[in-house]
Amino acid sequence: MQDSLSLPEAKFLTGWSHGKEALKTGSFDSFKGSFYVNCDFFHSCDHRKDSRETYGQHPELTATNVWPPSEMLPGFRQCFEEICNLIIDTAILVARQCDLYALAEIEGYEPGYLERVVRLSTTTKARLLHYFPTKADQGCQTAPRENLSTAAEKNQDDWCATHIDHGCLTGLTSAVYIDESAHPPTLGKFSAPPPPLPFLPSAPDPESGLYIRSRTGAIAKINIPADCLGFQTGEALQLITGGKFQAVPHFVRAGSTPTDGKQVARNTLAVFTQPGLDEVVDRSTGKTFAQFSREVAGRFK
To answer: DSSP 3-state assignment of 18?
Structure first.
């Protein structure tokens, strides 16, 4: 089933992906699995068709989505598209505020630029993330986060290594932690959506979760409430604004492995709003987002 939901021709950036992401160490990330979706459903059918015809040489951003069979996950596609639309709608409001700041601070900034990008782009990508339960020899030795330095950080980003996003704005849901020892993942056929899985009120280890590094190098843990969304800035926006907005380095820390037998998985959704491939993101060189995306991909070869 996993093979039928994976698209090698889209560089595993549409559909299911596990163990395909190269890390800086040269190894491949097997600690999390991802389900990628291209969010062009935010637009009309004609707009989607035009985008695929124009940018067909970039299948990782234009490939037709693959979805689990409806009898396996009834309602999955509808729920997925609804929450992505909500996040994009909210990102438009965030972008509008960013534009007001950029217009006041950056000479020659195009009024409404970021809002236009978020509203009209067909390259926005969603990533549903499942962080597998850590094993006894994988969980890190936790240290108080106020003692985390950049060097120590390298030993704490065990669920997701420190990185920056390369789009404009990333919308994030709060994390959902599930004890898979009590609720093991199962495949089956359903005539109606299965009941929601009970989730833990928080991670068993309070040090587990999402962390960011500030411009001064300080490390901060980010807790997004269950009824809220979080947004962070990416590298394309940093280029577009000449550094007025900067990409936020971030990582995910697993924390210590539970000693009570729990197998705790972390689940979250990220939506990356990105410029169209022909949008210029570096005015000094004329570099487009397509060229920039190829540069980013080359960093991980």
So the answer is: strand
pTM of the model: 0.87
pLDDT at position 36, please?
A: 96
| Residue found by looking up tokens 């630029």 in the block | 113
Adjacent-strand bridge partners of 38:
125
What is the Cα–Cα distance from 276 to 273, expressed in whole angstroms? Answer: 10
Q: Which of 209, 203, 118, 129 is nearest to 169 (CA)?
A: 118
290 or 246: whose pLDDT is higher?
246
Compute the distance between CA of residue 189 and CA of residue 184 in angstroms, rounded to an integer: 16
| Most distant CA atoms of the chain, gap in Å | 59
Q: Are 113 and 169 in contact (CB under 8 A)?
A: no
Residue 211 pLDDT class (50, 70, 90 cuts) = very high
Query: What would the DSSP string read from start to end of 48-87?
Result: HHHHHHHSTT-HHHHPPP----TTTSTTHHHHHHHHHHHH
Model confidence pLDDT, tens digit, residues 30-41 = 788 999 999 988
| Chain CA centroid to CA 183, Å | 25
Two tokens at 265? Answer: 């998985």
**69 φ, ψ (degrees, to nearest 5):** -55, 145
Reference 112, options 92, 89, 96; nearest CA is: 96
Cα torsion angle, 29, 56, 79, 74, sign: negative
Mean pLDDT for the chain overall: 85
pLDDT reported for residue 188: 75
